Amino acid sequence: MILVPAEVAWLCFLFPFAGALLSPVLARIHPRLRDYGALFFSFLAALCSVMFIPYLFHLEKLPLEVAFVWLTVPIELNVGVLVDPLSIVMANVVAVISFIIMVYSLGYMKGDQCLTRWWMWMNLFIGSMLLLVLSNNLLFLFIGWKMVGLCSWGLIGFYYKDERKYWIGGPPPTKYTTPSHCGLKAMVVTSMGDVLMLGGILIMYAYAGTLNILELYATSAVWIPEMAKSSGLILLMIVMLLAGPIGKSAQFPLHEWLPEAMAGPGPVSALIHAATMVKSGVYMVARLLPIFYYGYWVSGCIEASYFFILIAWVGAITAFIAATQGMVALELKKALAFSTVSQIGYMMLALGVAGLTFSSLEGGFTSGIFHLFNHALFKACLFLCAGSVIHTAHSIYMNDMGAIKKFMPFTWVFMLIASLSLMGVPPFPGFWSKDAILASTLATNNYPLFALALVTVVITAFYTTRFFGMTFHGMESKNIEKLKKKGAHLTEVHRTMVIACGALAIIIIICGLFGLPLEHFFGHGFGHTLAELNLPFEHARHSMPHLLVPLLSVLSVVTGVVPAYLLYFSGKIDPAGIVEKHASMKILHRFLWNRWYIDSFYYMFFVGGTTRLYTLVPRYIEKPLDNFFHKLIPSIPGRLVNLVKYIQTESGTISFNLLYILLFYIFVLLVILWVVLR
Amino acid sequence: MIPYILLQTLVLPIIASIFIFLTRYKTGRKAGFIAGATLIYTTALLCVVGIRVYQGEIIHEEYLSFPIVNLNLLADGLSIAVALIMNLCCVVLAFYSIHYVGHRVDVIYGKLDEKTWLMYYTRFFVLFPFFATGFIGIAFSTNLIAMYFFMELLTIIPLYFIMAQFGYSDFIERYKVALMCLFWGIAGATVFLIGILLAYTHTGSFEIASLSTLAGNPVAIWVILFMLIGLFSKLAIFPLHIWMPWVHAEHPTCIAGLLAVYANIAAYVMVRVLILPLYDDFKVFCIPIMVLALITMIYGSLLAMAQNDVKRFAACSTISQISYSVFGLGALTIWSIEGGLFFFLAHIMGKAILFSTAGILVYVTGVRDMREMGGLASRMPITAVLWTMGAMSLSGLPPFSTFPAEWAMFTGIFMFGIHGPSIVLIIAVIGVVAVGLTIAYTFWSVKRIFFGPLNPNLLNNPGIRDPPVLMWLPVLILAVISIIIGLYPKPIFDLFHLVIGLL
């Protein structure tokens, strides 16, 4: 098997960057050249990434690093690419799915007036994301990290004119949100996490003296114990470091931006807010994991264990909260967004439990990344199908859809495959990875975490059945009837969109059929990497998993599917009626519909607080200061002049004459004293 | 070998100024090109100097040696990097001003006959080159009095006169703000001068190099204190920032970008005059400086959020951004000093972009209130891109040069926090969080000005479109330069390290 040189990894992100720069030039020649040119550059990125897959069969040749000197002073920094199993898997997930979504975009964005801007942002995003996952050091990883955030801002707010048809939220009395507002919200919330993460990286650098990932691993035996001498410092660093992934991957408590990010065009939701960018937090946690594992299990620093405890709990809580919100969402893309948040929670949980016991490292790590891989596939497919459905139904709300199956049979099949995978129905890929996560969690004997994860499986099955049923089954909505009357073309969308969804569905089926071998393949690769880092752990046994977990998993799926089927497929029970009938259900529905009131609290506390603060500052600080410097001080000479005039004019009065005499004699006395004492 | 290379960079702008003045009716509308071409030439000279310094040479030229005052010029790694970027900003804004000043003359003086119009128009370009001379003079001076002289030169000639004659608002308000600028400039420089004189009483020399003989002497603390107060008023550190919103907002926008340079250059003076010669004595001021800078960072951000006036918004952002440099310098580590100085250069480029774009907005729409804008991206896409680039630069986003600057600066600050008093670590953490505030207000401004539906008041205005190419192209070039430096900051860091690395 031919192995490409590591230098090719540079091309993975340089090609899309070149595509972004060339788009305006190509647009001047011919619009089609621009479109296919952009696609071609993303294809080249995918091709370069795929060329590294053979390395996964030659693990002994990994890791590879190619770097050049970026800085020598004040810090010596060689920047470059790192090719190891994790970066190969991530690069392929990013590049291949990106290419498929770019193909989909050809149809989805057809006729848009701002296509040059579209292709520029998309290729810039792909390049930045690949830079993030292939970088050999934390600084350039952070550059990629910030740039994907910027692209996310630009693409969420792609419809920056905020036309009514692009608003999300509602229906009244729930407020609507404009795309530009959603973009800003995503930018601000994730940036707060980013800057804290930068602080965490800098604290790490202060002790490790390097930002190179492999060097950080290699020297952790030295710097972690050194850092542990300052009580609380490792914990501070962990909290700051995790703030970035929590923000970027929309985990509790920084998860509130992702549902609004759905204001972007469908391919953006699929690419950035489902398949790739939101996974960068998971990638970052996986990258940092060996450092803290070493710190805890080898160096014996108790504080290092908080890395795992924190991320495991954050993941489990997020998975649960977001899943419950997904149960009541009315917008199709928002339901999928809640699902994304929830599923990433699973990944975080897996990586968290990886460090909780000596024997769960390989299992936790593998299941987390395996779920990332699977989720990227099925969620991208779900979002692309959702984009197609919204395109046809001319509405973002699921209750404006219904019985769409007959109009869009292909999309129905593709979305069914992806939905079954999301629920965790065997043998679809979601089943294998979710099962592995549950097994890893159970292996740590942390039953509260396991229970939370299992309950979330039930809820996942419920909301998946719900959105699928509401969209494709049940009765035709009034909106659909209206569209039919108008003679709207209710049919499958542009062929490139169908092809892209179909391609993803086929890959999902293949990955599902080979789920177990694939999981073992991943496990072997990551196990090898972790062993190369001299991390002490027990290798996972690659045999059929214990039956208890899959059994519980399948039972949970059934528990979630049955009520949802009765409510949203068969039409025998009216869900709205149940909510109206029972006060407790009404309260619960309102609570979930308002997203646990977390978003409202953030708006009230952070946005309202900052607004209040910046209105108070000019009034109570700036204005008085301005008066002091620009009115009071300049008035002093005038006041002095007035005083002198007053003294002059009043010098005829006896009291002033006496005062002058007194002052004169005090002066004389002081002179005498000075002379004498001298 | 180019003779008198440093002197040329200092004097040629004045010669250009005199030439424009003497031939003002002949050169007329070409005055801007003459000023710009001269500055391009001096920038080229500075590039040559930069290459020589990069190769290890230190260029020292001696002129006008009086007993205690001289005009010796020194180009080392520190001064050349600073001088080059400042001059670059002058070049960009000279070309940008060509259209802008004509517009200002029309707005302020109304209909004029050709000769009077040309008189006003060329007057701007007579005054403008003094910026370059002042900046280069401060950067290259080896003598404290010469440095003081150039500081005052900047305050009086270009700032006061340009503000008074080409500023915004009505005649009285313009002169009032010009006077305010003058008073603050003189007051700051005077307190700085007190520090100089105090140092002189102990060293017997006005040479910057001789300040190091004060090291360890108790008077050094007083010298540093006086000079710091003087510099803080230039740097607009809270509560001495109060002039900045007025002056920045009312100056013609084509030089408002240079006002950021005028203010921020005090960071360079701080390093050259205080930190390098009196490093150990300066340590006493570390934490107070960092605290003040932190307060200013947050205060300036909140103030910026409160603004509706697009120019005042940029002015308040300058207050916040300049204090980043000071924050870095306060930490007194090699990383933070180099990062702080780099941030100064990156910020002036970013601010020149932002202010110039603000000028474009005012030029095109005729309004300054952001509430009366909105939705402009659809009609002014290039302007929207420029403003976004400015926002990115201020927010320290890659690939702009502010990113490596902030990163190096915060590396040094955290280093100090980890290995120094624990309070510094808290300050450092709050400092990085303050960066988040910058991102919030800059990107909010993008939304307010450019996104959403087009403001109904502007809907029927056919003039709402991108400005002439001569206005946006220089700004775009500056943005590209900032990106190039951001992607490959090694030359700047290498140059700085030649001097700062000796600490």
Automatic annotation (TrEMBL), chain A:
<feature type="transmembrane region" description="Helical">
    <location>
        <begin position="493"/>
        <end position="516"/>
    </location>
</feature>
<feature type="transmembrane region" description="Helical">
    <location>
        <begin position="376"/>
        <end position="397"/>
    </location>
</feature>
<keyword id="KW-0560">Oxidoreductase</keyword>
<feature type="transmembrane region" description="Helical">
    <location>
        <begin position="335"/>
        <end position="356"/>
    </location>
</feature>
<feature type="transmembrane region" description="Helical">
    <location>
        <begin position="230"/>
        <end position="247"/>
    </location>
</feature>
<dbReference type="GO" id="GO:0016020">
    <property type="term" value="C:membrane"/>
</dbReference>
<dbReference type="InterPro" id="IPR003945">
    <property type="entry name" value="NU5C-like"/>
</dbReference>
<dbReference type="InterPro" id="IPR001516">
    <property type="entry name" value="Proton_antipo_N"/>
</dbReference>
<dbReference type="Pfam" id="PF00361">
    <property type="entry name" value="Proton_antipo_M"/>
</dbReference>
<dbReference type="GO" id="GO:0042773">
    <property type="term" value="P:ATP synthesis coupled electron transport"/>
</dbReference>
<dbReference type="GO" id="GO:0051911">
    <property type="term" value="F:Methanosarcina-phenazine hydrogenase activity"/>
</dbReference>
<feature type="transmembrane region" description="Helical">
    <location>
        <begin position="89"/>
        <end position="106"/>
    </location>
</feature>
<feature type="transmembrane region" description="Helical">
    <location>
        <begin position="118"/>
        <end position="134"/>
    </location>
</feature>
<feature type="transmembrane region" description="Helical">
    <location>
        <begin position="449"/>
        <end position="472"/>
    </location>
</feature>
<feature type="transmembrane region" description="Helical">
    <location>
        <begin position="304"/>
        <end position="323"/>
    </location>
</feature>
<feature type="transmembrane region" description="Helical">
    <location>
        <begin position="547"/>
        <end position="568"/>
    </location>
</feature>
<dbReference type="InterPro" id="IPR001750">
    <property type="entry name" value="ND/Mrp_TM"/>
</dbReference>
<dbReference type="Pfam" id="PF00662">
    <property type="entry name" value="Proton_antipo_N"/>
</dbReference>
<feature type="domain" description="NADH:quinone oxidoreductase/Mrp antiporter transmembrane">
    <location>
        <begin position="135"/>
        <end position="460"/>
    </location>
</feature>
<keyword id="KW-0472">Membrane</keyword>
<feature type="transmembrane region" description="Helical">
    <location>
        <begin position="195"/>
        <end position="218"/>
    </location>
</feature>
<feature type="transmembrane region" description="Helical">
    <location>
        <begin position="658"/>
        <end position="677"/>
    </location>
</feature>
From TrEMBL, chain B:
<dbReference type="GO" id="GO:0008137">
    <property type="term" value="F:NADH dehydrogenase (ubiquinone) activity"/>
</dbReference>
<feature type="transmembrane region" description="Helical">
    <location>
        <begin position="6"/>
        <end position="25"/>
    </location>
</feature>
<keyword id="KW-0560">Oxidoreductase</keyword>
<feature type="transmembrane region" description="Helical">
    <location>
        <begin position="313"/>
        <end position="335"/>
    </location>
</feature>
<dbReference type="InterPro" id="IPR050586">
    <property type="entry name" value="CPA3_Na-H_Antiporter_D"/>
</dbReference>
<dbReference type="GO" id="GO:0016491">
    <property type="term" value="F:oxidoreductase activity"/>
</dbReference>
<dbReference type="InterPro" id="IPR001750">
    <property type="entry name" value="ND/Mrp_TM"/>
</dbReference>
<keyword id="KW-1133">Transmembrane helix</keyword>
<feature type="transmembrane region" description="Helical">
    <location>
        <begin position="423"/>
        <end position="444"/>
    </location>
</feature>
<feature type="transmembrane region" description="Helical">
    <location>
        <begin position="74"/>
        <end position="96"/>
    </location>
</feature>
<keyword id="KW-0812">Transmembrane</keyword>
<feature type="transmembrane region" description="Helical">
    <location>
        <begin position="32"/>
        <end position="54"/>
    </location>
</feature>
<keyword id="KW-1003">Cell membrane</keyword>
<feature type="transmembrane region" description="Helical">
    <location>
        <begin position="175"/>
        <end position="200"/>
    </location>
</feature>
<keyword id="KW-0472">Membrane</keyword>
<feature type="transmembrane region" description="Helical">
    <location>
        <begin position="220"/>
        <end position="243"/>
    </location>
</feature>
<dbReference type="GO" id="GO:0005886">
    <property type="term" value="C:plasma membrane"/>
</dbReference>
<feature type="transmembrane region" description="Helical">
    <location>
        <begin position="145"/>
        <end position="163"/>
    </location>
</feature>
<feature type="transmembrane region" description="Helical">
    <location>
        <begin position="376"/>
        <end position="394"/>
    </location>
</feature>
<protein>
    <submittedName>
        <fullName>NAD(P)H-quinone oxidoreductase subunit 2, chloroplastic</fullName>
        <ecNumber>1.6.5.11</ecNumber>
    </submittedName>
</protein>
<dbReference type="Pfam" id="PF00361">
    <property type="entry name" value="Proton_antipo_M"/>
</dbReference>
<feature type="transmembrane region" description="Helical">
    <location>
        <begin position="469"/>
        <end position="488"/>
    </location>
</feature>
